[in-house]
């Protein structure tokens, strides 16, 4: 065994023992030759696919980790399961007791919680901004989740969706007239978020890429994906460059590049929408979350992507590769192409494809449909 292999084995042992005390049963292996107990057992081990069009035209090898293949349709299934298992382990969630899990989410995480709560014996209560796309709302309704719509607002507003969820959970927890408990999932601040990606998403990518990755590219919403994956990558390699892909209106780009959380649209009189000024859902933020902080030291660079570039890229990927992706996946693909411009030829770039375009038909994809299906990659990036 070479010294490098010994070091790698040691890193894996240390890494896995670190996570086992918090991550219990949250990253099951998806061996499809065996029967599954419930949807929770279908989470994880998502496929990795080569994006032929982008690879051919950039000279780099670009791959997408298809998190949309999780049973709830996004990477958030991993987080939701990890959070629920944690509450079960500490006795805060007990199946069949009428327990309610509250979460503030602009969509995907809510859908994952709605799915898992149904399967595992709980109720999901989801607080979300009232401009969330219809597809996500309809999915939540179809799962039968309790839905509370609030006006998009800054996190300092007590009625902002995250704060509304926290308040709801506390009320139920303190209600002495019922045995049911309320818990606040708190995906932005909950350690079980990034740890789910550290324990499973990162290792899966590393194995699928045969231990050969040059760049890892993803956006940041809660920061769980980028923090968990990048922290894992640091345990196995010092060559992988982690790059944040950030939409317009988000302050994360400047935070990574210059250490300051600021975006130009924050100038007085220029902001059109309350939170992040973009049509992209799920990523981009103007505050630092606990989850992002857990991996910030492992992020090497950031790339900014406009809404127009993302919209055009979605159409390009659908037309050329049959990949029908959501808005954050599209941002990541644009960032990968920008990185490829200066990267060594043949570099291996992995992006996260968090969810599918089917979640974005009424908003993001309405714009993408207006793009000529024969658009060139040059026109996408301009
Ligand atoms: C569609 C989509 N993509 C990406 C992300 C970002 O993932 P994370 O919260 O792990 O930063 C989210 C988060 O909500 C999302 O909904």
UniProtKB/TrEMBL annotation:
> Which cofactor is essential here?
pyridoxal 5'-phosphate
Q: What is the catalytic activity of this protein? A: O-acetyl-L-serine + hydrogen sulfide = L-cysteine + acetate
Extract the Pfam families matched here. Answer: PALP
Per the record, the GO terms for biological process are:
cysteine biosynthetic process from serine
Q: What is its main location?
A: mitochondrion
Has UniProt tagged this entry with the keyword Glycoprotein?
Answer: no
The Tryptophan synthase beta chain-like PALP domain extends over 40-355
Q: Which UniProt keywords apply?
A: Membrane, Mitochondrion, Mitochondrion outer membrane, Transferase, Transmembrane, Transmembrane helix
Q: Which GO terms describe its cellular component?
A: mitochondrial outer membrane
Location(s) in or outside the cell: Mitochondrion outer membrane
Does Transmembrane count among this protein's keywords? yes
The UniProt GO MF terms for this protein read: cysteine synthase activity
Give the record's membrane topology. Answer: Single-pass membrane protein
EC number per UniProt: 2.5.1.47
Give the family this protein belongs to, as stated in its UniProt record: Belongs to the cysteine synthase/cystathionine beta-synthase family.
Stated name of the protein: cysteine synthase
């Amino acid at each position: 065994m070479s010294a490098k292999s010994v070091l790698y084995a040691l890193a894996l042992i240390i890494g896995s023992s670190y996570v086992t005390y918090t991550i219990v049963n949250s990253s099951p292996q998806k061996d499809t030759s065996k029967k599954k107990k419930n949807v929770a057992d279908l989470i994880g081990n998502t496929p990795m696919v080569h994006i032929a069009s982008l690879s051919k035209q950039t000279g780099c090898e670009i791959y997408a980790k298809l998190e949309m293949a999780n049973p709830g349709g996004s990477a958030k299934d991993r987080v939701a399961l990890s959070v629920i298992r944690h509450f079960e382990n500490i006795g805060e969630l007990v199946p069949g007791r009428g327990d309610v899990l509250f979460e503030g989410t602009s969509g995907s995480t809510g859908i994952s919680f709605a799915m898992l709560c149904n399967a595992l014996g709980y109720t999901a209560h989801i607080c979300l901004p009232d401009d969330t796309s219809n597809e996500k709302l309809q999915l939540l309704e179809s799962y039968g989740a309790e839905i509370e719509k609030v006006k998009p607002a800054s996190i300092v507003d007590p009625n902002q969706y995250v704060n509304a969820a926290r308040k709801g959970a506390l009320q139920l927890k303190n209600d002495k007239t019922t045995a049911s408990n309320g818990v606040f999932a708190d995906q932005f601040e909950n350690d079980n978020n990034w740890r789910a990606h550290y324990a499973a998403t990162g290792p899966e990518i590393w194995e699928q890429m045969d231990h050969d990755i040059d760049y890892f590219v993803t956006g940041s919403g809660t920061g769980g994906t980028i923090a968990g994956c990048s922290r894992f990558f640091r345990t196995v390699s010092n060559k992988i460059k982690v790059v944040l892909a950030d939409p317009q209106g988000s302050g994360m780009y400047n935070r990574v590049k210059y250490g300051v959380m600021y975006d130009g649209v924050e100038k007085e009189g220029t902001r059109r929408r309350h939170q992040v000024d973009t049509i992209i859902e799920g990523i981009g933020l103007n505050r630092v979350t606990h989850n992002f902080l857990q991996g910030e030291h492992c992020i090497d660079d950031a790339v900014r992507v406009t809404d127009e570039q993302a919209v055009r890229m979605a159409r390009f990927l659908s037309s050329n590769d049959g990949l029908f992706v959501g808005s954050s996946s599209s941002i990541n693909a644009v960032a990968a192409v920008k990185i490829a411009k200066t990267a060594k030829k043949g570099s291996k770039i992995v992006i996260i494809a968090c969810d599918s375009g089917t979640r974005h038909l009424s908003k993001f994809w309405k714009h993408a449909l207006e793009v000529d299906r024969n658009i060139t990659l040059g026109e996408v990036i301009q």
